[in-house]
Amino acid sequence: MDRGMTDEESKKKIPNYPIPYYLKKLLSNDSKPWPNMPEESRSYFERLKELKNNDKLKLKNKNYVDDFRLLLHDEAFKNELEMEEFNIYGQQITRINESNLFEIYVEGLEEERPTVTINDSVAVTDNETNQRYFELRVKKVLKLHIIAESNREFCEEFSEDTLYDIKFIFNTFPYRCCHFALDLYTYRKLKPYVFPEKSEKLHNPSNIKLTWFNKAIENNARQKQAVINMVDKSNFFPAPYILYGPPGTGKTATLVEAICQASKQNASDRILVCTPSNTSADVITKRLIKYIPKYKLHRMYSLSKDPLLLLRFPPRDFPYIFIDEAGQATEPETLIPFSLSYARNEQRKIILAGDPQQLGPGVLDGQEEKSILSPSSYNEQEMDAVFYFARLLIGYKFGNTVIKEEDIGVISPFTAQKIRIKELFEEYNLPGVEVGTIQLFQGKEKEIIILSTVRSKILRHDGRDHIGFLGDPKRFNVALTRAKSLFIAIGHPVTLQVDYNWWSLLDYCCKNKALYGAAIHTMVPEFWIPEDLKAILLKDGEPYADMTEKSERFLGVLKKLRNVDRLELSQSHYLQFLKLGLYLEEFQQNLDLRKFNLYGKKIERVAPDSKEFRIRIKNLDKDHPLHKSCNLIEIFNSKDVTRKKFVLRAKEVKNDQVIAVAYSEFCDGHNPKNSYNIRFRTNNYSFRCSHYALSLINSHKMTSYLFPIRKESYVFVDPEADGQRWCNKAISKNPEQKQAVFNILRKSAFPAPYILYGPPGTGKTATLVEAICQIWHNTGDTILICAPSNAAADVIAKRLLKYIPAASVDRIYSRSRDSSLIDADLRTCSNCSNGRIVKVNNRVVSSKRIVVSTLCTCTRLLFLDLSHSYSYVFIDEAGQSTEPESLIAVNVISRHGDSECQIVISGDPKQLGPSVRSKYAAPILGQSLLERLMKLEPYVKHNNNDYDSRYITKLLRNYRSHPAIIRVSNELYYENELVACSDRRPFVGQDFDTEFPVIFHGVHGFEQKENNSTSSYNIAEAKQVMIYVNQLIGEKIGEKTIGSEDIGIVTPFALQSKHLQKTLKNENLEDVSVGTVEVFQGQEKEVIIMSAVRTKIFTHDDREHIGFLSNPRRFNVALTRARAALVVVGNPTALQTDDNWRYFLKFCRDNGACRGEQFELREKVEEKRIFQDDEGLQERSEQSSDLFEETFDILKIDDGIIRRKKNKYLLNGMYYAERECSIL
User: What is the pTM assigned to this prediction?
Assistant: First the structure.
């Protein structure tokens, strides 16, 4: 690297520091490598890449000078290149009164395009000959012109008729100063100041007695201590002392006091005070004049721009060096005053003052919107709003202060807006209102600040929406912290919400009723899957060339997750792992959709001129995403080389076709003869809600709330002693239900969640309903009830209406819900009006004491300004939701919960849990909040084999099933604690034992698949199921005759369900319910017939298994749906491969309940903790998240990007956003 000149040579002139030849070649190629690149250029390239791509790269003394010199050359080259874009060609120049002054028009000058200052140089050449070169010196900068001074030679050659080319000469002087300071870094041995080490010889300077100039400092302990530390030269030497001053904390006042005290205590010492700009230097000088005589002060302005004015001072002249607003200066700039403190035999005190969270040095490289050739933006609507507020506020009183023009500051990030607002104030004779950019206002304050954000366009980069440099958090911080009494922000709310910081401000204003103007539509943020994680997942979790550091760290986590069954989340990594799980699951769902892509399909119009189109899809079974999370369909004309995309919305899915709605462009250009490629898109709203819940848990510091600790002492109150009036009289006869209701009422677990553990048929929902009714009748408390699905939420809402007036209940539905599916009993107390779902109304919700919704839909409550607080939050069927989904309801407490809001979680961890498709996410999201909590100390059984009833109640009395039906599940999963309390009605059936209504019917059928379907069916089993259906209809259960509506058919496979539904329809038995195990969870029937379908046996690591049928929870649910009779049809050879199924087969054989094909039971396989999934059996383990060594700063909890609101899909797949202007 070039080193410039020595210290002795520098006393003669400031050195030049030309860019090295090989570095210039690299920079001229846009810092990109090229074939056969010289080794010298490659060396520059590698180091420059490392410096720019590593935000956390720590500079070391060894490379300190070389690295900064390299960065200075890079920055100077870019600035010089940019300046060339402003060159003017073929323009006339006007001479002023035959003098040596000339006027040059510069388009864009008022917007600082380019930035021209006094004493800059301008090169002028004849446009035609381009031979003579003249250099003019800028003497004055006007609005659209510059006045330049020339030499005699140009005056003699000048002609009014000649057209000239004008080139703005890039001023390299600031960079030469920085290079010069780097030279002195080595020569004057500045390492102890730049890389200080902690001093072991510190002393307490509190014994210094000072008489305070500013009496307010004396009353502020931190300011007082800072002044004492700055005045005492011996302490901390040679390390610089840092005064960290956030906005409005009195940083400048503290610095001024320290300078005054240093001047007083050490009268012979000279003090140097430096700042990055004249503005900030003037501010501190004006304050010093209040306390120090002017003759002792010297405010030095640069005329010749020669830093040697300072560098030639003897070092002993400045024992104190103060650098204010140090955060705005580059490090090489800061080195210039450092260079005055190299003497090792004397103590020098260096003080750096600033705030690293505000705007830093202005560096061109890396900024948004750096195309300075494009004009700056302005917004006339916002200009009118700014002027209105300024006129309104002048003369207004804040306390004893009457607002004057000079008390108001107007900030705009855009120069064009600043200029036009300034002109507007001047036109209406309000010149005292200060108008400027955010940079100009840094370090200033006003009574009132009006911020005009201007931005109405949403930009996009690397697939993400953003708002350009307006999204810079430091710029945001400065803008919001300049006002003393009143801050007004004017902007486009839909656009601003794209940025998380601006969205937080909007949300804050919304909660505090501080919104005016256009309506604000607060939205759930968009959380994009990190590109570094996505790259690894696309490689199926395998390493690849040129991996980033973050990708390598993600890979390390994924490798460990492969071998983990359940990840025991610790409080330290809790949110990060849940967030990772959401990203992994969303990626997998998107990946799974690819197999459903269709190619060369015809699309029919439903009717002439209709906007509805029909797409026929074979095998549209319930596994298809259109039945689940997909509601958007992307289509491309297969012969259109432009691949123009159209987006249709799925309206109805039935049989083997989907009806989709299109917009006008597709409708106008539709040709029935065209063939289209079709791609399905998942609805990621539930993921967005879950991510948002994690961010709120983080910001409200609620993590500890979810890791409760057991309270040791409490006062026991016997529920029998309480004279309770029961809505459901049966509850009073069940001690466990009674205990649960009583403990919920008195909030015995608070602040921990209370768990209602409800095995099948034990009356969990009845207990929950009774508890809610008791709260409603006996207190004035408000209640929120959530469930994972609409079906579960509807069940509890309908039961509540038996005891509570509909006027007190609000059943909230998502606007995506088909209103025709809403039960008639619930319409009157829901947000369904005139056959459609309407927006959640703040006034209506506030008037209801009980609100029922799904977990995702309750996200809407977070954006309402309710007039009440919830005292209870119930989460029913919590075992079926992922933990992030449950946290959505928990977050309502932070927004609308009172100080003692009790969370009540109900469910059964032994039944089906959350549905998770990703093998990596399964250890994280496969465990519900209910299941995780039940492993924590307050919820586990004690030595006496009992639960602590303050925190958890396990219901034991089964009112649903015949004892024989629940026996297997009772012994396998419920520690044989369940007590059968149902009526033992005799079952009269030709194949049934009246005392043992359970049958296993062996069928050696054949498991088959259809094209493009992952599901299976078994014709032999389906036939046997139909035989049982026809036999059972008309039989007796006690006095009841079995009808088709009393029979339910359960099967693990959606395709088998589809075949059975078709067969039943052909035989006019459509009242027989058919569904998968997931569909039947929470339901019950008099008779259940199960078709296992599975005949294949899989092998993994030399062990046999039957795939997802081995899931013990699926097994448990399937066998506990029946009230009076249970029939299982399956292949005994395949099923007994699994221990649970073998236990059931043995149970049936021992009780003479086996029919059909005969079979022999194999020896019991060795028991091991195993994890079963759809693809195979894998030995896995439980592991604590604390064992993961990877640091999780690779994931940010608050990384949401607000997607634009009111987005309508145009037919090219783009968004349309309505323009609005709002005042905060």
Answer: 0.66
